[in-house]
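The records we work with from here on pair a chain with its fold. Taken together, the tokens spell out the fold as the letters spell out the chain. To see the layout at work, look at the sequence and tokens printed below.
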Amino acid sequence: MRKPHSLAGALVLAMLLSALSGPIINVAASPPRATSPTLGASLSYSVLAGSIVTNTGASTMPGDLGISPSIGVPPHFTGFPPGIVGPPGAIHDADANAAAAQADNTAAFTALDQGCDTTYPGVQDLTLVSPLGPGVYCADAFILTGSLTLSETVGVYIFKSASTLTTSSDSSITGGDPCNVWWRLVSSGVLGTGTDFLGNILALTSISLATGASVNGRVMAQVGAVTLDTNTFSSPPCALQITSTPTSTATGTATETGTPTTTPTPTITNTPQAPQNTNTPTPTITNSPQAPQNTNTPVPPSTDTPLPAPTATATAPAVVGLPATGGGPLPVAGFPWSSVAVAGGLGVLALGLLGAYRRTRRAAR
């Protein structure tokens, strides 16, 4: 009786396992996209070393050559000439420019530590897995014994080596965009004689190029030396591609670089300092009514001067009745009849008021 239920349960379990297996396969089939870092101040460099740069033969590079932090007593480079730097590049020997470039090189090295899309066990010869599409490829070490083809010209390639990169003589890398091909080496890199290399090598320790090796990109070591021997560099500006992260944004960065050109324009038009300066003197001139204030100052004295005339006329009545020669009252001749008349008037008035008061009292009773 329990067997049908057991069979149904087994079918349900199988269906669940089948459903769960689908998303796992799909996730593995669509790995995350690799992204290019921003080189910042190190963008203008063809060669950057942490200690010294040694050159033999007529090496040429269009970009800067820099050493930072350097070791020992300057100069920290030899072989220039016959080596040629620029134009437009120049040599920066342990100066502020090289220090800023080394700081941005270190930041780019950290940014390249992205999740692996493909991990090879041990040491991987990239010739054996050619061609390759964009992605992040990881191994204990990489070697190149022949040719490596990168199948897409637009797309980011990151090769992360836990130690070294070594190429055999006359090996080559073709296909990808040098601005979006990156070699992150935890130790050192060695390019064999006549190697035709593509991409930017960012090594923690040192980088050595054998005779005749050419690099379409850059070589930058953080703490060690860079050794050259009749090498040729083609270091593209990479201003558009390096600032883009996804594969498709390599073209979208052209609009981003166009944005800075428009950014200064509003800054220039927004410099209305001339109008502000013209407005500033205007209130200063109109606000200098010191002349009216000065004209008001003499007005009170002029208006105060006629005041003595009214006071003179006002004192004239007070002097009436006084003798012309003094301030005493004039003597009255005869009996003072005017005083008697006033006293009699007051008495009549008092009697009238007393009679009115009595009549009011009677009426009240």
